[in-house]
Specification:
2 helices, two-stranded antiparallel ribbon, binds nickel (II) ion
Amino acid sequence: MAVLPIRLFGDPVLTTPAEPVTTFDAELRRLVRNLDQTLYDQRGSGLAAPQVGVGLRVFAFHDEDVAGHLVNPVLDFPDPEEQDGPEGCLSIPGFYFDTKRRMNVVAKGFTADGDPVQVAGAGHLARCLQHEIDHLDGVLF
Ligand code: NI
């Protein structure tokens, strides 16, 4: 495992939509382990593959007692409730932006082994999941 350098605002990889994962292999599992370790090292809530220079639809998240990763995620919104509040990003260190998000989400995707998985998130975790999936679309806030 390795702690990877994080790409910062201005790097074109951050504004390029990431490609879907098509091969669930050892390289993908290594990417997920490195995302996990880098996220832990940075004490962050989420880290998307483009933030370490890899243009694939993968991210890791860590919210209090819930941690994991998703490959090729899609979002469902179970209700229209919204939240508004400050949001940070490891690629824009030290800055927080008031960002309106949905309050409740269900993120569906796959594990690095290719098994279907879904994560239901409310509040901060919902905000994190929306932020990370924005990264996969090349969107920063
Ligand atoms: Ni971010």
